[in-house]
Amino acid sequence: KVLEFILRGSRQICIMATEHEDFIHDTQIDYYGQYLASCSSDRTVKVWQIVDDNTQNLVATLRGHEGPVWQVAWAHPKYSHSSILASCSYDHKVIIWKEVDKHSFQAIKTYTGHTSSVNSIAWAPHEFGLMLASTSKQLK
């Protein structure tokens, strides 16, 4: 699978092989433009270090979901000296990942309160604190 994006206001389109084994559903660049996260039906989240317009290094493949991963979202950097990333999936889970060492991410929280596919996640604006919203198709 290939990903195309324009980086840092450049007019050049960057093309990179994602190493995902199935459809890519979402990509997000972090606040500082240093990391790009992608998620896929292959049940993984991949984190890339953006070096420059022509160089992106795969630094982590995050495994923890048991179904297709629909969306990823980076938290505002105000809340941690390291990066925080959330992911949501068909498996009814939201996982929050934290960079524990340089380029090493670990699941720090798994929310399992949904009873159906979690289709969307979004962090609140940083002025409201570290809050994450998630939506699913469950009826209550």
Please explain how this structure is put together.
The model has no long low-confidence stretch (mean pLDDT 86). A hairpin with an 8-residue loop joins strand 11 and strand 12. Helix content is 0%, strand content 56%. It has strands at residues 2-6, 13-17, 24-29, 35-40, 44-52, 55-63, 69-74, 84-89, 94-101, 104-111, 118-123, 132-136. A four-stranded antiparallel β-sheet has the order 3-4-5-6, with no helix packed on it. A four-stranded antiparallel β-sheet has the order 7-8-9-10, with no helix packed on it. It has a two-stranded antiparallel sheet with strand order 1-2. The chain is an all-beta fold and 140 residues long.
Layout of SSEs?
Elements (H helix, E strand, L loop, with lengths): L1 E5 L6 E5 L6 E6 L5 E6 L3 E9 L2 E9 L5 E6 L9 E6 L4 E8 L2 E8 L6 E6 L8 E5 L4
Antiparallel strand pairs: 1-2, 3-4, 4-5, 5-6, 7-8, 8-9, 9-10, 11-12
| DSSP helix fraction | under 10%
Low-confidence stretches: none
**Residue fraction in strands:** over 45%
Shape: globular
Distance between the termini: 37 Å
How many separate helices? 0
Largest sheet, if any?
4 strands, antiparallel
Order of helices and strands: EEEEEEEEEEEE
Tell me the strand order in the biggest sheet: 3-4-5-6
Question: What's the overall average pLDDT, rounded?
Answer: 86
- Determine the structural class based on helices, strands and strand pairing: mainly beta
Secondary structure tally: strands = 12
Whole-angstrom Rg: 15 Å
